[in-house]
Amino acid sequence: MSFYTSLSGLKNAQTDLNVVAHNIANAETTGFKKSRVEFADIVAGSAYTNPKHIQGIGSTVEAISQNFAIGPIEQTGSALDLAISGDGFFQMKSAASGDALFTRNGSFAMDEAGYIHDGSQNRLQIFAPGADPAVDAPIDALVPATNGAGAEFAGVTIDNDGTVRASYADGTNEVVGTVALASFISPSGLRQVGSSNWEATGLSGTPQFGLPDTGAYGALISGALERSNVDIAEELVSLITAQRYFQANAKAIDTATQISQAVINLRT
């Protein structure tokens, strides 16, 4: 039994190493949230087993949970770079499927049609002017190429409260909408889909929408990005711990092998 007990430890140590390596690999990924492995022990016994005689039979991975602590804010100067100073996620519309994606990565740009999007062409979602977040659904962030007077687009800015303003060659400004922020009852239940994006699941609950700098939602910081919340020093310590964990379980298997070999070699 000791072989299988230690084998479960080896597998768990490998999982831990993989998660730590993934965190370190994304230490410079904008909007990335680090993960940690949570282990649980395994015991076996029936109602007729003496509680004092129950033996553990190894461990298992109970969960790989994400830490949604806010990462450091880096100033960039770009008007379409946004960081959330508190709680909330940007909602994006997937370019591939049209499904809703959620992210803390506010590195946005504008395409030739006027849509505000991320590096994967997923479109930022905003509320139309005068919309009620409790009732109205967000829409694609689209900046008109000309205003009502026919003047051409000259630039775009986003305020701390999420208001998207387009400026035109005739000196006028128009409000395009307000950036939509989403929150979840259980963010740890979100499913990672890559590129610092998440999808809602039954564990996370449905998204609740609101406006930046209102209620529990954080204000926006224009010209800034939220960096990864990975602490390299902390991850290196975790890496050493996982390595020792792996080595200890490997040693336990080696010891069990030696004991088995000694029993086999017994002479009567």
Automatic annotation (TrEMBL):
Q: Which SUPFAM superfamilies match?
A: Flagellar hook protein flgE (SSF117143)
Its GO biological process annotations read:
bacterial-type flagellum-dependent swarming motility
InterPro entries this protein is in?
Flag_bb_rod_N, Flagellar_FlgE/F/G, Flg_bb/hook_C_dom, FlgE/F/G-like, LlgE_F_G-like_D1
Domain Flagellar hook protein FlgE/F/G-like D1: start-end pairs = 83-166
Q: Where is the Flagellar basal body rod protein N-terminal domain?
A: 3-33
Keywords on this record? Bacterial flagellum, Cell projection, Cilium, Flagellum
PANTHER family this protein is in?
Answer: FLAGELLAR HOOK PROTEIN FLGE, FLAGELLAR PROTEIN
NCBIfam families associated with the record: FlgEFG_subfam
- Name it: Flagellar hook protein FlgE
Which organism is the protein's source? Novosphingobium marinum
